[in-house]
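Here is a protein:
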Amino acid sequence: MNAPRNDADIQQSLFEKRQKIYPREVHGRFARLRVISIITLLGLFYALPWIDWDGRQSVLFDLPARKFHVFGLTFWPQDFLLLAFLLMLAALSLFFFTAIAGRLWCGYACPQTVWTEVFLWMERMIEGDRIAQMRLDNKPMSWKKFRIKATKHAVWIIFSLHTGATFIGYFVPIRELTSQIMTLELGAWATFWMLFYGFATYGNAGWMREQVCIYMCPYARFQSAMFDDDTMVVSYDAKRGEPRGRRRFDDEEKRAQLGDCINCTLCVQVCPTGIDIRDGLQYECIGCSACIDACNDVMDKVGYEPGLIRYTTQNLIEGKPSRIIRPRIVIYGTILLSLTGLFIYIAGTRTPLALDVIRDRNQLYRESRGMIENVYKLKIINMDEQPHTYSLSVSGIDDIRLELEQAKIRVDSGKVMALPVRLLVREDTLTSRSSDIEFTLTATADPELSVSEHARFIGPMP
């Protein structure tokens, strides 16, 4: 009969203390691709705020002015539809490439992966390789160990603060921000967000690392919904590798009894999440392909064919035919191309001028000496980089008359003007209680900068 378990036993069984992972450095084709991806992405992140475009920071999300500057284009809150399209394109792109080749995003482009790789590189430069790091952590605290650890964390913190400052530089002009930091005049909110983002970088990439991927990231949980037997994933060929075991390579009889896996465990040692790919596809696998490079290097040294661990599909592993073009790929690709084309069309044809027409709801109409009057409030939004003077016209009813409270309609760049207007129509001209009309606003200096808006003119029953 089993002894009863107390609360301490139950609590201990439900909690497992994190064991630090020491990923071994690996070299190979996929490692080079990952390095190229990391250098490219980090280069863009740190360089873009310093690149000018048409005399302005190339990428700047100016929240106080409610303007987003992206490579010469200026987007306003009224362009929310474009933002929605971008988010849908990002989601569909993730689904599309995941269905084709698994977790490419996680292994090569995810910010958690990118910054973790940089922190690992700095750790290796200061503490040494995997074995040296393990030995250092197992040693009791000494002046030498303290100095090495303090140096590592100091470098991490400096890099994290630089990352936080660069992040803020996408919302505050980077040159102005740098000047404020150097003169210790940085505002409270900018300081808070720089420290917050820097601390998040330091904590996620320096301390939590694979814990973010395993426990915090939702993508690992629903990726299986996008996988099928034809999805390219990192896989171990068990038919070829088993039974695994060490062997003397001059013992032909034992070599014939074993599979190609020599059980060197290098595939586990290089894994940044600490899994054993030989146990099959696991949600912790981020598709970084480090195990492929490590295994291919071992296969080359022992004289076996490469590809014991490789990018392949479940169907190919089982000896079945595999297809790249399949219904879900066609559906994802068609929707992705359609939304991309629609986004390009909307962004290319957008007019930096908006006009909203609001009828006076206090009184439908007024009658005076055979004339019917409707009152409207026009909201004019100049989304161009230059101030403009506009002319306003209205059409839809014969002999309709437009009266303005001001003779000149001038709106500065980025400003909104509320313009009251009155429309007068002879009562005998109206043929129905409600008539369609159209307001047209045109820039006097640029007739192509024009926008129209429909409205209704209300009168008595004819």
